[in-house]
Write a structure and sequence with these properties.
By secondary structure, the chain is mostly beta strands. The chain is 3% helix and 54% strand.
């Protein structure tokens, strides 16, 4: 397992984690992370999954300065392959996307995480990938934060061995055997860097200079029912009040 670190004109910090099977060169796990103050780009290609010939993912986060010259998240978008139905996806409530393959040999997750620091709300985004190779469970994750003055930052953690599909990694020893400060030259890595991942696009967050939020209140609570979301929804005995408001400052 080899880790490359380098810089380019667009991205001052880039890395690629490469793991190619010694016995079967078609089996690989390639992960690329690139970021600057306004953009973070992740790409994943993994062919170790027993249930799929290849798992692919592309994630992009963008930020911009507001009227107070502070950086804020603008958009978080994910493109995944078309090989499975993402039942764990929820854009309305928890802001996360997750997928566990049918044979439980490959898992990835994108999650919005909110914490407090000195009574100030702090929002980060986390990408986590887990896969099974032989008798070994391998996991790594990326923590992405938006600093008000410096913009976007991404921290790569891992890869580690773990005992099962759990968020808390059980081993602190990294599996990286070699780390080099050059751009990778492998053909598989080049194809991942230059290629376009086709699949389903999910917008986990999309802000702007003006955000409209809609609050829906069902003010009749006796026998009222609501089923569905959008077209095809059913309203029975409901008295709905809808209020819209604008927020001029983007908020993650």
């Amino acid at each position: 397992m080899k880790l490359h670190r380098w810089s380019s004109e667009e991205f001052p910090q880039e890395l690629a984690l490469i793991y190619i099977s010694l016995t079967d060169k078609s089996k690989h796990s390639i992960f690329r992370l690139s970021f600057n103050s306004k953009r973070v780009l992740l790409k994943l290609s993994n062919s170790f999954c027993d249930a799929h010939p290849k798992r692919e993912l592309r994630m992009e986060l963008t930020a911009q300065k507001d009227n107070l010259k502070c950086f804020n998240f603008v958009a978080v978008k994910v493109i995944t392959d078309d090989t499975s139905i993402h039942d764990g996806f929820n854009v309305c409530a928890n802001k996360y996307l997750s997928d566990l393959c049918g044979r439980k040999s490959c898992f990835y997750e994108v999650m919005r995480k909110v914490g407090n620091m000195s009574s100030v709300e702090k929002v980060n985004w986390e990408f986590c990938h887990w896969y099974y190779v032989g008798a070994t469970h391998i996991a790594f994750n990326v923590i992405i934060e938006c600093d008000k003055t410096r913009g976007l930052r991404a921290e790569f953690r891992g890869p580690f061995k773990c005992t099962s599909l759990v968020k808390e990694l059980k081993s602190e020893a990294s599996l990286i055997l070699r780390e080099v400060n050059t751009k990778p030259t492998e053909e598989a890595v080049r194809k991942l860097m230059e290629g376009i991942i086709k699949g389903r696009e999910y917008i986990l967050y999309e802000g702007g200079s003006e955000q409209r939020a809609t609050v829906v209140n069902n003010i009749v609570n006796t026998g009222a029912t609501f089923n569905g979301d959008g077209n095809g929804s059913k309203y029975e005995n409901c008295d709905i009040v809808m209020n819209s408001y604008f927020n001029s400052s983007p908020k993650p």
